[in-house]
Amino acid sequence: MKARQPRGFVDRTAADLIAQERMLGVIRRVYETYGFEPVETPMFEYTDALGKFLPDSDRPNEGVFSLQDDDEEWLSLRYDLTAPLARYVAENFEDLPKPYRSYRAGYVFRNEKPGPGRFRQFMQFDADIVGAPNVSADAEMAMMMADTMEALGIPRGQYVIRVNNRKVLDGILDAIGLEGDQPRRLTVLRALDKFDKFGADGVRLLLGAGRKDESGDFTKGAELQQDAIETLVRFLNTPEIGELWEIFQGKIRDGRFGEGLKELSEIAAYCSAAGYVGRIQIDPSVVRGLEYYTGPVFEAELLFPVVNEKGEKVVFGSVGGGGRYDGLVSRFMSQPVPATGFSIGVSRLMTALKNLGRLDVAERPGPVIVTVMDRDRMADYQAMATLLRNALNAPGRPVVPVEVFQGNPKQFGKQLQYADRRQSPCVIIQGGDEKAAGQVQVKDLALGKELSAGVEDNAEWRAMRAGQDLVPEAELVDAVRRILARRAGA
């Protein structure tokens, strides 16, 4: 059998996971300062609970990963974290405080074609307010996104939170003849959502006959008339709320259009009063491809340039977004339930922080290793490791790992090589003679390398026992603490 990784999935190393956990800790702290509390939902949901945006087919396995359980019910791996939250709130509605503020981090799964930087499994970190009908909640979401970017070390001027309103866009879609045409509306939304990636010309193709990418893959277009296409492109290119009103008010009689513009003005006013001018901007080009959004939508975009896989300098782009979804929870209930939230793409944001040099990739210290000189004395070595674990790992202090070497102990040099590879600060050595004398050897590996750097003779190196101290067993903990303190101050 050949060992091979499934396409679109990645393995994550200890360094990746440690850096990710530290980043999640920063985000979590920002969310909690706004009063959000954690909740966790399962990775699988009943397929029909994931939303009407999923394909309707006999085997609902297009876009999502699905299976049938022994009751012949279709289950799917979650596509995002929002639809599962809607189901959770509906099931627990009477027991939850309203508005209900929650956050959750977890992996989501897309059964789509993988590509560079596009994975089938990736992590999101969401925050949502359920039961808040006013757009002040949407403004607060945008502010929290801005605060999160800065807490992660992304300075002002290198990010922006862009805000739009689906009511405005819905009014325009109705005006160009797509009222009630849900499949084509969704195709149009997904085409408009590619504006930052493909530009106006690429969007024109997706709104028209379709677009072929560089690999030769063809994406079928919405097949709109040319005047409808130009209306939508003009909408995307109009940055000011006042301009939108002047351009489109005579052409659009849908009340949602005016309502959406009013909500955008309110959000701009709230953000300005709170000191977020420039950090949060109204931008009609923000669409968000999912169908369930019903009001304000927002996107966090990073503005600094990076080099892509072709060696070209490009703006990094979006690392998260969200919006208002007033109809999602109410699908399960007989009453309207307003909600708003946003999601951060964790893996993409980690890549951005790495490009900025702001990702905390410092590895945890390696373990203190108790070497094995005599296999018959394994109980002694385990007792020594337990003593060190208990003494070195006080509550609230950074973890100091301690382990007993569990490989083949015949060649002692292999144990030291293992310690080097694990970046161990020190090793503990106790043979029969040391045990009889009530003593133990403690070897500082970093100091040993430093002291023996100029020694070329093997016999001299063994004789000098560089970085190695013989101490009474009762002083073992203190000796290890001195080495750890020396390493921390290096």
UniProtKB/TrEMBL annotation:
Keywords for this protein: Aminoacyl-tRNA synthetase, ATP-binding, Cytoplasm, Ligase, Nucleotide-binding, Protein biosynthesis
EC number assigned by the record: 6.1.1.21
Is ATP-binding there in the keyword field?
Answer: yes
Q: What is its main location?
A: cytoplasm
Which InterPro entries does the entry link to? aa-tRNA-synth_II, aa-tRNA-synth_II/BPL/LPL, Anticodon-bd, Anticodon-bd_dom_sf, His-tRNA-ligase, HisRS-like_core, HisRS/HisZ
Sites binding L-histidine sit at: D80, L81, T82, R110, Q124, D128, R288, Y292, Y293
Per UniProt, subcellular location reads as:
Cytoplasm
Cite a single GO MF annotation. histidine-tRNA ligase activity
CDD domains for the chain: HisRS-like_core (cd00773)
Q: What's the catalysed reaction?
A: tRNA(His) + L-histidine + ATP = L-histidyl-tRNA(His) + AMP + diphosphate + H(+)
Fetch the Gene3D superfamilies from UniProt. Answer: Anticodon-binding domain, Bira Bifunctional Protein, Domain 2
A Pfam family recorded for this sequence: tRNA-synt_His
Which SUPFAM superfamilies does the annotation name? Class II aaRS ABD-related (SSF52954), Class II aaRS and biotin synthetases (SSF55681)
Give the CC-aspect GO terms.
Answer: cytoplasm
Q: Which domain of life is it from?
A: Bacteria
Give the GO terms filed under biological process for this record. histidyl-tRNA aminoacylation
Which segments constitute the Aminoacyl-transfer RNA synthetases class-II family profile domain? 21-365
Quaternary structure note: Homodimer.
Indicate the family of this protein: Belongs to the class-II aminoacyl-tRNA synthetase family.
* Protein name per the record: Histidine--tRNA ligase
Q: Which organism is it from?
A: Aureimonas endophytica
Its lineage opens with: Bacteria, Pseudomonadati, Pseudomonadota, Alphaproteobacteria, Hyphomicrobiales
* Gene that encodes it: hisS
